Amino acid sequence: MVGFALRTTAASLVALYIAFLLNLDDPKWAPMTVWIVAQSNRGMSLSKGQYRILGTIIGAIAAVTMVALFAQVTELFILTLAVWLGLCTALATGLRNFRAYGAVLAGYTAAIIAFDSISSPLEVFDIAIARVIYIGLGIVTEAVFTTIFAPGSPLQEIQVRLATYLREVADLCARALRGQANTSGFQRLLTGALELDVAAEYAAASSGSVRSRFGHLRGAAVAVLTQMAIAQSLREHLAGRPDLDEPLVGKTTMALDAIGVASPADPDTIAALRADVRAALSETADDSGRAISPRLAILDHLDRLLEAAHDALTRQALFSNEKAPPSRLNLSFHVDHLLAVQNGIRTFVAIVIGSWFWIATAWPSGPSFIVILGVICALFATRPNPVVGGVGFLKGGLIAVLAAAICNFAILPMLSDFTELAVILGIIMFATGLAMRNARTAALATSFAFLFLDLVSPDNVSRADAASFLNGALALVLGVGAGVLVFTLLFPFNPEARRLRLQRAARRDLADIGLTPARWTRERWLSRTVDRLSSQAATNAGVPEKQAEDDLRGMLAALTIGEAAITLSELAMEHTGLSKPLAVVLRQLGRGDPLHLAKVSRGVINHLSYRINKPDAPARHTLIRAATQLDAVASAAANHADYLRGKRAA
Q: What single-letter DSSP state applies at residue 461?
């Protein structure tokens, strides 16, 4: 906490000093950028800085183009700018991490440059270049300080985090095999895979080793997601047969316990146990007079569980091996297209109305008001609750106005050189840095950090006069307030509607797996569904506990069905004799009737029974795997039929 505050304060003052030396017209943007991109670790800072400079350059190009084309036609200029901001906001809604931030930057950077140059359009190129220089100076300064004073080892940090995650998952799966229901634990660790992916992406921004081996980490995450999906299904199977005493379940539980405490775990131990399970599978198939006995289903689940665990450990070893070959693996994430359109329209409308207000009142600070309004509408559109975020930003802004007024009119007039200015600003910004690392004050302090510097506006030649300061403060408060009002009135935050869209999207993808299974991979389905699980959990505030639990179980059932359907598609390609019966099940999945899906799946299981029990049955293990996956589909579809049909349980 103290290190972050010291490092960022020093970097912002150095950036300001360099801006003074270069005699830049608006030096405040250099230290403001330092505080905007500063993060808790080097990878996050570098990643945010990369997307900030990219967004700034794109926004600068857009601004130069708009001013060159429409500077003499105010209406077209405003409409074009509003469309650009709306498009950038909509795009940001569909992106993740700092890529979304870069899209937002491209939007409001264009607004800042365009309004700064609208009165002197011939200077737009110079203004755009200056803007890029300010931002670049702040980013480079912050990156240098972070690299020197917060070096760390990104690869080692991610290795430790991955090992910890694998141990937690192994412990959760072991408890599932013991019959301990822990739905919330499954949700936490399923979404934890995405948190690990985000952390690794940030680490990759500052580490070539992490970048080159990123695919191995993602492969481990996909294997772990598969492992948890199988463990959840296996727990339900074991709960349905409490009388079944299977020694290999106990051995698997002990092996998972060993992974939970060993570092590093030994993949060979898992491979040896899996060989025992496969031998037991063959023996059980020979002795069974039925298509799929309870023991056969449990053994096949154990086989798949151990396969996934072995794959996760192997991928972990590759990620930790500096001689491992480079690897890339793409994941897929949920995009709420309706929300993106709503956010784009909201920003467009806000800019048009704000511009009309500026033109009607001829307010000198009208352009600043429009820029702030655009920033709020674009920046907070991607937050889970934009109204709450906007109100928090407004609180930070009000405190910044008060602090800046004291500095501008009571303290700064008494200062005579940069050293004195640096001492005053340093004290204030150091305290702000401490507050940014406190969870309770982080949001407020983050907005205060750059709004305070914006309002103080330190430069080489002048101090703020009362009229310009009050106009700037008024533009800030009204801009943020108008943004919050727009969020409240136009497409207001509706968590229930978002939950329903998430669930419809999951059902739509399930149907698509059934209709076009060749388009789907395991990593695509698992990562996208887990992303929806995470988004669904974020909307739980105010939702009755039973409904939240039912929705969570329903999404887990969808996860299980989709994973099993992808496995069935793979088996159909592996063994041509299975293509027709499994195609019947997949087509039924595409029709969206879970009860009929369960019925058809059980019918195909009965059909496979005769082939499994024939002495000369080819690819017997493939047939067993198909039967157990069909059983998983049938059970999940029957038990969660209401959710899968989009109906609320009574």
A: S
DSSP 8-state code for residue 411: I
Looking at the domain assignment, is residue 566 inside a domain? Answer: yes
Contacts of residue 262, Cβ cutoff 8 Å, sequence gap at least 6: none
* Boundary of a domain, candidates 292, 320, 348: 320
What's the pTM value of the predicted model, to 2 decimals?
0.89
- Three-state DSSP at 295 gives helix
Interatomic CA distance for residues 566 and 511, integer angstroms: 12
b/e map 563-602, b = 16+ CB within 10 Å: bbbbbbbbbbeebeebeebbbebbebbbebbbeebbebbb
User: Three-class SS of residue 574?
Assistant: helix
C-alpha dist (Å) from residue 167 to 105, 123, 223, 248, 624? 39, 59, 14, 20, 30
3-state secondary structure of 181: coil
Cα(268)–Cα(242) distance, integer angstroms: 30
Domain count, the chain: 2
Mean pLDDT within 387-392: 88
- Its domain, for residue 217, covers 154-320
Residue with structure tokens 């020979």? 286
Q: Which of 54, 68, 199, 232 is nearest to 139 (CA)?
A: 54
24-28, 134-138, 167-171, 172-176: the lowest-pLDDT one: 24-28
Asked if residue 480 is part of any domain, the answer here is no
576 or 256: whose pLDDT is higher?
256
What's the mean pLDDT in 445-460? 86
Q: For the chain, what's the residue count?
A: 650
Q: Report the b/e string of 355-385 with b at 16+ CB within 10 A.
A: bebbeeeebebbbbbbbbbbbbbbbbbbeee
> C-alpha 400: how far from its chain's center?
30
The confidence band for 328, taking pLDDT boundaries of 50, 70 and 90, is: confident
Q: How many CB atoms lie within 10 A of CB 616?
A: 5
Burial class (CB in 10 A: 0-12, 13-18, 19+), 427: exposed
Would 263 be classed as within a structural domain?
A: yes
How buried is residue 72: exposed, middle or buried, by Cβ count under 10 Å (0-12/13-18/19+)? exposed
Q: Does residue 595 carry a pLDDT above 80?
A: yes
Question: 574: closest CA among 613, 620, 537, 609?
Answer: 620
- How many CB atoms are located within 10 Å of the residue 409 CB? 14
Give the pLDDT score at 264. 62
| DSSP labels, 81-144 | HHHHHHHHHHHHHT--HHHHHHHHHHHHHHHHHHHHHTTSGGGHHHHHHHHHHHHHHHHHHHHH
For residues 405 and 466, what is the distance between their CA atoms, to the nearest angstrom?
Answer: 9
Using one digit for the tens of pLDDT, what is the confidence trace for 618-628? Answer: 567 788 889 88
Among residues 269, 290, 320, the one where a domain terminates is 320
User: For 187-246, what is each residue's pLDDT tens digit?
Assistant: 889 889 999 999 998 888 888 888 899 999 999 999 999 999 899 888 888 887 777 788
Q: How far is CA 399 from CA 395, 396, 444, 547, in A?
A: 6, 5, 9, 40
Beta strand ranges found along 157-223 (DSSP E): none
Residue in 128, 99, 96 with CA at minimum distance from that of residue 111: 128
227 assigned to some structural domain: yes
Supply the CATH number for residue 163's domain. 1.20.58.220
Backbone angles phi, psi at 261, to 5 degrees: -115, -20
* CA dist., res. 210 & res. 324, Å (int): 11
